[in-house]
Amino acid sequence: MKAIPLDNIPTFHGLTSKGPNGFLFKFDVLCKEYDYITDPKKLMLFPSTLKGEVMCWFMGLGRGTINDWDQMKMTFLKKYQDHC
After folding, report:
1. Distance CA 18, CA 4 (A)
2. Measuring CA to CA, which residue among 43, 46, 39 is closest to residue 10?
3. Whether 58 contacts 47, CB under 8 Å
4. How sure is the predictor about 58, in pLDDT bands with cuts at 50, 70 and 90?
5. Helices of type H across 8-67
6. pLDDT at position 82, please?
7. CA quadruple 38, 1, 20, 11: dihedral positive or negative?
8. Can you tell me the distance from the alpha carbon of 30 to that of 16, in angstroms, rounded to the nearest whole number?
9. What angle in degrees, to the nearest 10, is found between the helix axes of 69-80 and 20-33?
10. Could you give the count of Cα atoms lying within 13 Å of 47 in the half-sphere of its Cβ?
């Protein structure tokens, strides 16, 4: 697992100009590039990409709500697909 330079990490603010699908694509590319390929690694990195209200939403999910990366993606897209 390589260290990821902070300026390489994509961020998501929930703004209409940047959709959640494109953001998740960039996140997946980054994870592959830096060997964050397991669910626990992706789930550990994901919160560092969220900003503003999106981070508040994420923090409100509660502990134990998300168990794997596919569940996180589905929950994220359900929330932000139509919003953006």
Report:
1. 22
2. 46
3. yes
4. very high
5. 20-33, 39-45, 53-59
6. 74
7. positive
8. 22
9. 150
10. 12
Backbone CA torsion sign across 18, 20, 25, 26: positive
Q: CA 5 to CA 17: how far, in whole Å? A: 24
The tokens describing 23, both together, are 């953001």
Answer for the pair 69, 43: CB distance below 8 angstroms, yes or no.
yes
Q: How many residues does the chain have?
A: 84
Token pair of 15 as six digits = 């703004």
Q: What is the helix (H) or strand (E) element at residue 33, kind and residue range?
A: helix 20-33
Q: What is the average pLDDT across 62-83? A: 90
